[in-house]
Specification:
Blueprint lengths: L14 H22 L7 E10 L3 E10 L8 H24 L3
Antiparallel strand pairs: 1-2
Helix pairs in contact: 1-2
Length: about 100
């Protein structure tokens, strides 16, 4: 999994705004999976998001997908794509909040 640090310079954010950022990441990742697989092709899916704000904003997103053996998909690649898309979407939203969008 790829990780990186992005310096945006955010204003103070409320608990609701932080929760919305987490929900955006989670929804984006799950929507990406279901853009490539039907619901019947996914045995189990779990997306866990942790957002913390100290001196910096930290967002951790874990995505686990289980598919039946007959579904021909590279699950690791799909998860990586979904995570990258989610992080890009969050970055776009944070830049909007910071007024740099």
């Amino acid at each position: 999994m790829k990780t990186g640090v992005i310096h945006i310079g955010l204003p103070e954010m409320s608990e609701e705004e932080l929760a919305a950022i987490g929900e955006l990441a989670q929804e984006t990742a799950i929507n990406h999976v279901f853009a490539h697989l039907t619901k019947s092709e996914v045995k189990d899916i779990e997306a866990v998001v942790r957002v913390t704000r100290d001196e910096t904003l930290n967002l951790e997103l874990e995505l686990h997908i289980e598919v039946p053996i007959f579904v021909k998909v590279d699950v690791d690649a799909l998860v990586e794509e979904a995570l990258e898309k989610a992080y890009r979407k969050v970055e776009e939203r944070l830049r909007e909040i910071a007024g740099k969008g």
